[in-house]
Batch of 2 targets.
Target 1
Amino acid sequence: MHTAPAEAGALAALIAGRTQHPDVVRVLCPPYVCLAPVRDALVGTGVAVGAQNVHHETAGAHTGEVSALMLAGLATWVILGHSERRREFGETDELINRKLARAVEVGLRPILCVGEQLAEREAASQDDVVAGQLRGCLSGHDPAMIVEAGLVIAYEPVWAIGTGRSASPADAGAMSQVVTRTIAGLGWGRAQAARVPVLYGGSVTSANFGDFMTEPGIDGALVGGASLKPDEMAAIVARAGVTAQARRAAAG
């Protein structure tokens, strides 16, 4: 919940101008009221626009809410199930499952967030927690449809969000394997599951992002506070570009 509309548009244009890289997918997700100015500022830059949330119904008596149909034309991506939505608004996996359906119906590319609390990490139950969230949010959906919609999973350990404390690259890499294995186990199959990118989110900075990208199962980042700093974003995207080129070269 940062920036007024005019400020958001100016910031988006600045970030877009400093993060040009053909091998990196870049998406900026401002608050609802900033979507139009950010969209306009990003025309022709190659940077996409995403919304931070969407309602689980197509329309109706839901004052103050925004439907997927309303977002069409303003955004092409949407974040679902962010830990702050779960914490502050009580969003459940079942509700997020319904939001996913609405997003896919109108062609929004979903970024589905999962992650454990500190007590769950300390109890070594993080794998079960994240697997349970994935099953709850994805069960009942047609795998082919969701994969073709471009599903992305963002692993955001709740204890590392906005705290300055991040999970280790090894933690994130291990969780990416849990994500892929769980999705495959839903009947999607290993090949389909492998097509779903996994991002790391949680106090991501230009200083630690490179370490996370050494993990082959991590494909990028869901950037929080650092996204308000053009210098940080420029460095993060530059590092992502180096990693993308290295992985392509290694694949032959």
Target 2
Amino acid sequence: MVNTELAKSPLGGIGLGDATKVFLKEVPFTPGFDLRVQPGTPAFTAVIDALGLKLEPTVGRVMRINADCIVSEDEFPAQGGVIALCLGPDWWYLTGTADIQKLLSSALETHHLSLVDVSSQRTKIEIYGPSAKDVLLHYWEQDLREDNFPIDSCSQGVFAKTPVIMWHCCKDCYILFPRASFAKHIWTALTDAAVEYL
């Protein structure tokens, strides 16, 4: 649990724009965990049972349960959500509003797997609205067309010369997970790219 009286968000939870065009928002203090577990093993099964979520071992796929992604204006995600972004054959980035560490505590005690809390390593920036993709295409080097990057796809790539994880979470909505130390740089790039829509 994050002590928000002591913790500092890289961007202070800033939000900017209009959801009818493009809305940019940092969602501070979003938990994040690197999970490493071998698919097909008893440990993998234990993780699936504990999370209540079938992990997809295909790189670039996202699975989620009770996890809404839109944080436009004053809306925030429901509690108890789990999102699993597959970044490698045995590697998932877990995030959401559920207490993931508590959910996996029993599996960690009885099986061979790794769960590392990387919450302070990254922040979460949402780009929402009909012009979201146009804003991202100023800097993103990969193809964002629906055929190549449909909803619930994720990718590690470079945005404004900075490594990020991107998740296409729903229609007209993308989420970036940049390193916290590069958050201000990413925000500056995003606001510059979005200036015509703000």
